[in-house]
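=== Per-residue structure ===
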Amino acid sequence: MIGGLRTWDEQGRLTLDTSTFTYQIVANVLVNFASTSVLNIPITGNASNHCAVALALSGSFMPHIEVQANNVQVTRYHPSSPSANQTTGIVRILVMRFRPAAGAAGPSGSYGFLAINDAGYVQIDAEKPRLSVLSSGTYQGTSMTVTVSFPQPITTQEPPCVFIRPSTSSGTELYYAMSIIGSPGGWTGFSISTRNVAYLPSGKWFAAAFAPTASATYGLRIWDGAAARVYDSGAAPAVVTNVVQSWTYVGAVAGTLAGHYYWRASYSVAEDEYVMINPFTLPALSATSPAASPTAISLNYAQKYAEIYQQGPSGTVFTNKGNVPAVFARLFIA
């Protein structure tokens, strides 16, 4: 570290190093797809190699996402079939810069505290809350569905982002149908299911939100112009390590009720990395049979790839998945 700021927690773990790039929120939009068909979010620089979209709220379907050179485009229907299934829910869209873009300046604030690292990128901005880890633990299911309770309710209005790290000692689970338990201001847990009859869900998890609620007795705290706390060194940030968002269609396998189509991306999951499960809980856009198009994700540690699956009757899936984001993060700075 040449210069900047570091914070540690009570166990001596490094929670912030402004010389280490994590991510920046460059757009935070709440969109109602009932009245919006296409949303374009202009991004400075080549967004295709450093930005990703994370959907933090549920909707009726997963919208179609394209991360373009200077723009992120989110469409409520699949571009090849505007008259097919559409998402009509209210969705929070976050555009994150997860690696520096050459020549692109980081966002800056006009109020409060601003920390910029050696490479010129903003690490703390009093106007943009960081994704703070609020609770963590392990899960072990006795059936295909497991329910997890948070140690204390999460009091944000929007549901938290849930990251999981499936066990490396069991089979390759196919995760889908995660739901947040509770209501705005009182989220109490989540449930998650696998589609593999032979493998029970097990692993580690953490929940994060854009509102620190830590109660550390020492450290650094920052409030914005509306007196809302936006940073607390006692609430460790979720350190976004990478995003997988380019998927190659592989093929289909037969199922009892319908075919299962899958897409693959090469990725070697690090020992301490988790993946955000929220985006993979929405049904995928399809030409027909909206109720039979769940989406799922699996991580293959040994063969070093991630896969997304979609169930659907023959000929009803769109093989172009767009840039569905698999956001990877860890709990603490390495």
Q: What stands out?
A: Residues 6-101+108-125 form one domain. Residues 102-111 have pLDDT under 50 and may be disordered. Residues 207 and 319 are 31 Å apart (CA to CA). The longest strand covers residues 145-154.
